[in-house]
Amino acid sequence: MKNRLKVLRAMRDWSQAELAMHLDVSRQAVNAIETGKHDPSLPLAFKLARLFEMPIEEIFDDQP
């Protein structure tokens, strides 16, 4: 699944570790989501949407 997570994180000048801390996940989990190796759980996707104050659909694109 494509996502804008890396761009959104960079706009806030956060490292992967800082974003992980906000989400209560590991840095490795953030990296796996950013690189498309792992899709976030629905609760985590909602956390991301609240953190970046945007709809989930603006962060993630399920089109191939």
Structure description:
This protein is mainly alpha-helical. The protein has a single domain (2-55), classed as 434 Repressor (Amino-terminal Domain). Helices cover 59% and strands 6% of the residues. The protein is built from five helices and two strands. It has helices at 5-11, 16-23, 27-34, 42-52, 56-59, and strands at 2-3, 60-61. It has a two-stranded antiparallel sheet. α2 (16-23) packs across α3 (27-34).
SSE layout and pairings?
Layout: E1 2-3, H1 5-11, H2 16-23, H3 27-34, H4 42-52, H5 56-59, E2 60-61
Antiparallel strand pairs: 1-2
Helix pairs in contact: 2-3
Shape descriptor: globular
Low-confidence stretches: none
Q: How are the strands of the largest sheet arranged? A: 1-2
Q: CATH first level: which class?
A: Mainly Alpha
Q: How much β-strand is present in the residues? A: 5-15%
List the secondary-structure elements in sequence, H or E. EHHHHHE
- CATH level-3 fold name: 434 Repressor (Amino-terminal Domain)
Radius of gyration: 10 Å
Which quaternary structure do these chains form? single chain
Binned, the helix content reads 55-70%
Task: Considering the chains and any ligands shown, give keywords for the structure.
mainly alpha; globular
Summarize the structure.
The protein has about 60 residues and is mostly helical. It has helices spanning about 5-10, 15-25, 25-35, 40-50, 55-60, and strands spanning about 1-5, 60.
